[in-house]
Amino acid sequence: MQKYINYISESTHFSQKNISNIIELLESGCTIPFIARYRKELTGGLNEVEIDKIATILKKLKELEARKEVVLKSIEQQNLLTKELQQKIEQIQTLTDLEDLYLPYKPKRRTRATIAKEKGLEPLAKQIMQERNMNLSEYSEEELLGARDIIAEWVSENVSVRQKMRNYFNRNSLIKVSKAKGYKENSKYEQWLGWQENAMKSASHRILALFRAEEEGEVNLSLLPEDNQDAVEVLSRGIIRQNNSASKQKQKACEDCYKRLLAPSLENELRAKLKEKADIKAIEVFSQNLRQLLMSSPLGEKRTLAIDPGIRTGCKIVCLDANGKLLSHDVIYPHLKERESEITLIRYVKEYDIEAIAIGNGTASKETERFVRKIDFSKHLIISVVNESGASVYSASETAREEFGDYDITVRGAVSIGRRLQDPLAELVKIEPKSIGVGQYQHDVNQNLLSESLHKTVESCVNQVGVELNTASYQLLSYISGIGPVLAKNIVEYRNQHGAYSSRNDLLKVKRFGEKAFEQSAGFLRIRHSKNPLDNTAVHPERYSIVEQMAKDLNCKVKDLIDNASKREEINLSKYIKGDCGLPTLTDIVKELAKPSRDIRTKFEEFTFNNGIDSIEQLYVGQQLEGLVTNITAFGAFVDLGVHQDGLVHVSEISNEFINDINDVLSLNQRVRVKVIAVDYERKRISLSMKF
Question: pTM to 2 decimals?
Answer without folding.
Answer: 0.86
